[in-house]
């Protein structure tokens, strides 16, 4: 991985066709691994709250903006 480059949640196992528990674990792993996370277009169901500590930058396509907004809210609350 290139230092400072975003990590893609797909590389951690997230997928629009994956189960909610798989997506939650994969996206949480990506959040834990880097400060810059990329979520490709798609609907990613999750079965629990995602938590991040510190400043995170989450980039997503237009159609995943709802998840992006929720993640930013949770991140801000934990700072």
The residue fraction in helices comes out at 25-40%
User: Can you list the strand order of the major beta sheet?
Assistant: 1-2-3
The DSSP helix count reads 2
Order of helical and strand elements: EHEEH
Q: What do the pLDDT scores average to?
A: 80
Radius of gyration: 11 Å
The low-confidence runs, each spanning 5 or more residues with pLDDT under 50, are none
Number of strands: 3
Largest sheet: 3 strands, parallel
Measured by DSSP, the beta-strand proportion falls in 5-15%
Protein architecture, described:
The protein has 79 residues and is of the alpha/beta class. Helices cover 35% and strands 13% of the residues. It is built from 2 helices and 3 strands, in the order E-H-E-E-H. It has a 3-stranded parallel β-sheet, with helices on one face. Helix 1 links the parallel strand 1 and strand 2. The mean pLDDT is 80.
């Amino acid at each position: 991985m290139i230092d400072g480059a975003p990590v893609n949640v797909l590389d951690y196992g997230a997928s629009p066709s994956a189960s909610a528990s798989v997506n939650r674990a994969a996206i949480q792993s990506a959040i834990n691994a880097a400060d810059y996370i990329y979520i490709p277009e798609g609907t990613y169901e999750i079965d629990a709250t995602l938590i991040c500590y510190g400043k995170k930058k989450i980039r997503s396509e237009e159609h995943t903006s709802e998840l992006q907004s929720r993640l930013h809210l949770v991140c801000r609350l934990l700072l």
